[in-house]
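Q: Hi! First time doing this. I have a protein sequence and I read that you can turn it into a structure. Is that right? Here it is:
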Amino acid sequence: MSDSDHRSKNLGPNTQLVRAGYDPFDYHGFINPPTVRASTVLFPNAAAMETHSQKYTYATRGTPTTDALCDAVNALEGAAGTILVPSGLAAVTLAFLAYLSPGDHVLIVDSVYGNVRHFCDTMLKRFGVEVEYYDPSVGAAIETLFKPNTRLVHLEAPGSNTFEMQDVPAIAAVAHRHDAVVTMDNAWATPLYFRPLDFGVDISIQASTKYPAGHSDILLGTVSANAEHWKRLRQANGALGICGAADDAYQVLRGLRTMGVRLERHQSGALEIARWLEARSEVARVLHPALPSFPGHDIWKRDFKGASGVFSFVLAVARKDEFKAKAQSFLDGLSLFGLGYSWGGFSSLALHVDLEERRILQAPDEGPVLRLHIGLEDVADLKADLAKGFAALQ
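A: Yes, that's right. Below is the predicted 3D structure, encoded as structure tokens:
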């Protein structure tokens, strides 16, 4: 370990975010790295071209800009290497394609991001991979689901839309006993609040579109591997030719510098609103792992250092045939909350969650599930806007 590596491990999280991945004096003291837009890289002579005896050979294999972001993510994740891809979904699918082959069996958490489920049910099955979904609360009992050909276990904690927690170290320990690779979508917590590789995960996946970028204007994903699995991930990425663009990498690296202070604001605002919602008569349940009332709270408290700004609540609606209409009435009553997909940016968002595709988990039966992303607006204004939504139900 170099002196600089040792110093980095002893720095606080916000200091790491400010300094990770780039030394200004590598480029004449400029505090941000330059944006190197490139495809072709020239070699000084034929021998160098034949042997690739220089750091950069072609832009799909990296540029100074993309390397700066990869180095920063490696430091935050504790990873041996990181790949940049054009979206969070691409980050998951690249990881699956790197480690799965026809005839393999894969275990996917049933609270997985919906577009990942679509990839599993279409592309993976077409490629001859057997897909099985499991309950996120299974813990070490996941061992009963393993088959001789189980090659990969995919986790997402908290789970999409309903925020079920997973016992990550218990599941990882079982998977490794069966020589299976463990992948995890960690976009909700970011490596600032949870570092998957420290808990037995082999491949940590981030949708940098969300909190790292932070401004709802960039699409990018990162896939970070431990030392054992880095070589195969890098080879798969080279074979597929998937890479992130320099301009996007620059923007995400700039967003990383303020991610810590933004996450603190997202977290505090979301918790205040979640507690406020718990006291509302129109709300049946609040689905937020940092609330003591949430079933997975103990696991969250044991393993995670914080929470982000995304959670859901169940609207109290007596008749199931009114779920959709009531959800839409609530959403149409909002003005500060935008109605849009994704999350992680500065503005608050809301949507009605569709849980029909799940195989194991049952959707809440007390009413429709509404997901909120709490942005950087004043909490009092957001509460007032949510109150308008509740008034619209009348």
